[in-house]
Amino acid sequence: QVQLVESGGGLVQPGGSLRLSCAASGSIANINAMGWYRQAPGKERELVAHIRSGGNTNYADSVKGRFTISRDNAKNTVYLQMNSLKPEDTAVYYCNAEKEVAGTGYDYWGQGTQVTVSS
Q1: Buried-state track 38-62, b at ≥16 Cβ within 10 A, e below 16
Q2: Torsion (CA) 62, 52, 91, 83 in degrees, nearest 10
Q3: Which residues have a Cβ under 8 Å from the Cβ of 8 and sit 6 or more positions away?
Q4: Residue 40 and residue 103: Cα distance in Å, rounded?
């Protein structure tokens, strides 16, 4: 099992910044990728940013140029730096870890952290 604990959410004004952190613990070997997803009220969960173990990243079009995902392997932690925040970025943000064991893929999720962008 992999445990993921997010932190760093909160209330911020439009144009502001926040940094989310996700610390992984437990059986963290063979985690191939980690990412951030978000879910706004009444909407489906969507990918925000994703980083593979080799460092390759990808982003939702809506956050490109504003958000940056990074990973500290020594601390087993992934970060999401969010700049130029907009009200439409308001959502619960979830950390995700993808792991493969003997050819079978597993997904793990954190409990979520609320991000609210409002004046």
Answers
A1: beeeeeeeeebbbbeeeeeeebeee
A2: -60
A3: 18, 19, 20, 21, 113
A4: 33
* pLDDT for the residue 82: 98
SS (HEC) of the chain: CEEEEEECCEEECCCCCEEEEEEEEECCCCEEEEEEEEECCCCCCEEEEEEECCCCEEECCCCCCCEEEEEECCCCEEEEEECCCCHHHCEEEEEEEEEEECCEEEEEECCCEEEEECC
Question: Which pair of structure tokens corresponds to residue 32?
Answer: 């191939």
Q: What is the pLDDT of residues 43-91, one digit of tens each?
A: 999 999 999 988 899 999 999 999 999 999 888 899 999 999 999 999 9
Give the Cβ contact number of residue 95 at 10 Å: 26
Question: What's the confidence (pLDDT) of residue 22?
Answer: 97
pLDDT of residue 34: 95
Tokens of 62: 């809506």
